[in-house]
Write a structure and sequence with these properties.
There is one protein chain. By secondary structure, the chain is an alpha/beta fold. The protein is built from 21 helices and eleven strands. It has a five-stranded parallel sheet with strand order 4-3-2-6-5. Strands 9-8-7-10 form a four-stranded parallel sheet.
């Protein structure tokens, strides 16, 4: 057999053919020294270049229309919430669950959706939930003030029996008061159904986070989506005005809905005081210390900021949107409560995007009168406008940001840009130190940083690595933030 290529190219030589010469060693040392000198010189040049320009520089950056506004085609994904063939009509077993929903609008909405699913798991009739009137929002609205009650009952007829109140004969009977464990699965509720052996009525004081995000029966997950995205339709006055405001915004062109979480309670709760005066920082600290159910009192504001745990300031939002390529003429709808510091801080954002509007600026005074003293109803208007926007941008991840993102994913993965707050803070600091300018280089970096943070289809994230026990369940991505794969399919809409 012929030898290999190596055998032919370098024929074998006997050991006696190799002879060592002193001059060979000398020349070898000279060659090695020369190579070392060249490598050292090139390395020093490279280090020097990095010192002068530590971040990659792009001379020109211009975002395309597709990059700015995205596609409305939904990537081929569609809602799929139809029950499976194994799903049966609920039975009336004469047992009832009454619920007091807690929190703001979106916390109550997801909590109600959870309790509909819980009622199904426990084969019980659900009484229309009572809404939270004692929280920070101090809203006296009833269920029918915010939601279309008749539509809610009718929509769920094939899933869970829903009634407006207990039968008269059960109004005064003893009730089991039960704080259901958070993030519980189907087995837990099947076990809890034993309470109905001794009681006809179970009273649930809190509705939020009653169900696990994952590992629930497929039909229960689909029921949660049917409840949240279909049955929980807003009351007619809210729906009507919400659609009017969307139409008025659309008449101006495409728009961004910005959920700016720069409200007093949020800044106090997170301990974020960057950019505020000493007096404002002390006011927020006092509020946190005087709020009993906020367990964490001493918070290092700078650690929070560098950890990406603070809402972006209005000024930072302006820099961020500009860096992404949105022109100064872009219309931005401000979906938020009262901004801390008012015009003092909003002015920083408005100077970069003058077409910044709120619902108060889009309506006639009489149109908004009935909503002004009802925070949850006003929040419902913000919710409608945010879901229907061309682009949604939350400055911080909270209940509304998660709910809106999940709804937009459900409706076809509409563009939702989640700022990388931790990464952005590093860039903002470079600008503040004068080590980077607000220009093409920043735009290139910010755009690259957010290439995969725009609401494109992906499966829901599980728990964080290293998390253990039941605590790991809290680290999972919320089902309502991303209901894929259970409620979103790569198939025809059905």
């Amino acid at each position: 057999m012929a030898g290999s290529w190596r055998d032919r190219r370098f024929p074998a030589r006997s050991p006696s053919s190799f002879r060592f010469r002193p001059s060979s060693l000398f020349y070898l040392i000279l060659v090695l020294l020369a190579i070392f000198t060249v490598v050292l010189f090139l390395s020093q040049r490279q280090i020097s270049a990095v010192d002068r320009d530590p971040l990659p520089h792009t001379a020109h950056f211009q975002a395309s229309e597709e990059q700015l506004w995205g596609s409305s085609l939904g990537y081929g994904y569609r809602p799929c919430v139809k029950p499976t063939s194994r799903y049966s009509v609920p039975q009336d077993l004469g047992r009832y669950i009454i619920v007091r929903s807690n929190g703001g609008l979106n916390q109550m909405r997801t909590g109600i959706s959870d309790m509909v699913a819980v009622a199904r798991l426990m084969n019980a009739t659900l009484v229309i939930p009572q809404l939270d009137k004692r929280s920070f929002w101090q809203d006296s609205s009833t269920f029918e003030d915010i939601f279309d009650e008749a539509y809610f009952i009718e929509s769920l007829k094939g899933d869970v029996q829903v009634v407006r109140g207990l039968p008269k004969e059960l109004e005064s009977v003893p009730r089991a008061r039960k704080h259901f464990t958070s993030w519980s699965g189907a087995g837990y509720y099947e076990e809890m159904a034993r309470l109905f052996k001794d009681y006809k009525v179970i009273h649930v004081p809190k509705s939020d986070s009653r169900l696990a995000n994952n590992d629930l029966p497929l039909d229960i997950q689909k029921l949660r989506c049917r409840t949240l995205y279909q049955a929980l339709r807003f009351a007619s006055p809210i729906e009507t005005l919400g659609k009017k405001l969307v139409a008025r915004l659309r008449s101006k062109g495409r728009y961004i809905a910005l959920h700016l979480r720069y409200e007093k309670d949020m800044l106090s709760f997170t301990g974020c005081t960057y950019g505020l005066t000493n007096q404002e920082a002390e006011e927020l600290k006092a509020m946190r210390e005087n709020t009993n159910h906020w367990k964490l009192k001493d918070i290092n504001s700078m650690e929070q900021r560098y950890g990406g745990l603070c809402p972006l300031t209005p000024k930072e939002v302006g820099i961020f949107l500009k860096a992404l390529g949105y022109p100064k003429s872009t219309w931005i709808y401000l979906a938020a409560g009262e901004i801390y510091g008012g015009d003092t801080y909003i002015a920083d954002l408005r100077s970069q995007f003058p077409n910044l509007v709120t619902k108060e600026m889009l309506v006639q005074k009489k149109e908004l009168e009935k909503f002004t003293k009802h925070a949850s109803q006003a929040a419902a208007l913000d919710y409608i406008i945010s879901v229907e926007s061309d682009v949604f941008v939350p400055s911080y991840i909270g209940n509304m940001a998660r709910a809106v993102e999940g709804h937009r994913r459900f409706l076809g993965h509409r563009k939702t840009i989640n700022p990388d707050r931790k990464g952005l803070v590093e860039l903002f600091d470079l600008i503040e130190k004068g080590e980077m300018e607000d220009g093409p280089q920043l735009s290139s970096l910010v755009s690259q940083m957010h290439k995969y943070r725009q609401g494109t289809p992906r499966k829901r994230y599980g728990s964080l690595p290293g998390s253990k026990g039941r605590a790991r369940l809290r680290t999972e991505e919320s089902f309502y933030e991303n209901p894929l794969p259970e409620c979103i399919c790569l198939s025809k809409k059905h």
